[in-house]
Design brief:
about 80% helix; about 0% strand; elongated
């Protein structure tokens, strides 16, 4: 298997693990209860944790320039923050809880968008490597 394919697969795997850690193991009640309030420090803190863990990919697996790392960090922060905020807006405005189908659609869409963000990050790292 070509080395670039292995690097891409490893990068996606690390980002998926990073996402699970940041979204499920490190996320506090303060963070998830306040992500729906725009600009609240809880949502900012949550997105910052994601950004803080992403360098595992471009410092260990797929090296990037400092400029690319900065662009990735800013982009990921803005995307993660707004994806989470929008999901909270949709679920809160509709009064959805885990008992409602709409809640699970919103959560699934949220997770899909985060995953697509990680594919874009890996794509940027591969483009830089070539």
């Amino acid at each position: 298997m070509p080395q670039l394919v292995l690097i891409a697969l490893a990068a996606v795997a690390v980002l998926m693990c990073k996402h699970a850690v940041a979204d499920f193991y490190l996320q506090s009640a303060y963070q998830y209860l306040n992500k729906g309030t725009y600009g609240h420090p809880g949502g900012i803190e949550h997105s910052a944790i994601h950004v803080a863990l992403t360098p595992l990919v471009y410092f260990v697996i797929a090296p990037a320039s400092l400029l690319l790392a900065l662009i990735i960090a800013i982009s990921e922060f803005l995307l993660h923050y707004h994806i989470d905020w929008l999901k909270e807006q949709v679920t809160q405005r509709n009064g959805w809880t885990a008992k409602d189908r709409g809640f699970w659609y919103a959560l699934g869409t949220d997770q899909l968008l985060h995953g697509l963000t990680y594919l874009a990050i890996v794509g940027a790292l591969i483009a830089y490597a070539m």
